[in-house]
Amino acid sequence: MKKYAQIVGWGMYAPQRILTNHDLEKMVDTSDEWIRRRVGIGERHICAPGEATASMATRAARAALEVADLSPSKLDLIIVATVTPDYQFPSAASIVQDALGASHAAAFDLNAGCAGFVYGLYVALGMIGAELYRNVMVIGSDTLSRITDFQDRSTAVLFGDGAGAVLLTATDQPTGVLSCVLGSDGSGAEALLVPAGGSRHPATVETVQNRQHFIRMNGAEVYRFAVKAMADGARQVVQMAGLQIEDIKLVIPHQANIRIMEAAAKALKLRPDQLYCNVERYGNTSAATIPIALCEALAEGRIKPGDYLLLVGFGAGLTWAAAVVQWGAPVGAASTPWWRSVLHDLRGREAAVRSLTLRTRRRLDSLRGADGRAD
Q1: Check: CATH 3.40.47.10 for 4-326?
Q2: Quick one: how far is CA 155 from the chain centroid?
């Protein structure tokens, strides 16, 4: 019997610090009126010094596990979609796996720019459909404030930090992720990139002085690509699911820019109530925008079992991705028993102890090995 991938848990995290448009007015030549008119953003969340992509991803994943009431030990795979991992290696996903205490899970990062979360959904669907894994955590997490040039007005106003996660599990019911479309056009790679820091242009004094470790974007080119890619991808994936655009209850697009979303909505002839937008409160958080918006839409009661959702995004690469999801998990005000919240908190503490124990054991083994060589 065919296996379907159903979303049974979800969670998000946004840093406490908020950077408003009025704050940006003091940093760069811009204004609150200009930012709101051009991109529709009022504020964005910014990581504190001790926070990074993996720590935000862990917070979002823990929330998803609590919603699903699933032990981290039952996770089979963790995928973190990100363009801002904590390190070049190891992967942010491996750090999350350790922090969760997901001792039986494989883990890897996925880089498809702002389309990365939907790319991750498709990978999860394939793994579950092939019956290789049963429980897969897909996380979109990015710390774009660390690669944003706050001297560049064209990009400084756009980006924020955050994470969103969903837990997918295998089911025999024909629900969950029904169809996906992925695409890439590498001829547009230079339209949106960080020029230095990779193997082509390793970090040097010159690359740092020239501010080449920050996001560079050709806004006009990205805009034209995004509107067409989102509209075309949406039509294709809805048709693959055997549906019409009118059947879609809620479209959750990548929250990059209000003008891009409105132009794509116009091309698709969406009703006003079909489009979900929260870019005003978060800005562009890259791979995190769609899962954060999904979590907020659920919290606002915009989604109920049986509804068809369209998730669609675009990003660096240039990439695009779209998915149709039929919502199947219960949504509502059923309160979580206190003991269950305590249990999930204890699991988090247990993961920390487990990690410390393994690190200590590895260190002791290393010291014993060094002593042996000295003899």
Answers
A1: yes
A2: 19
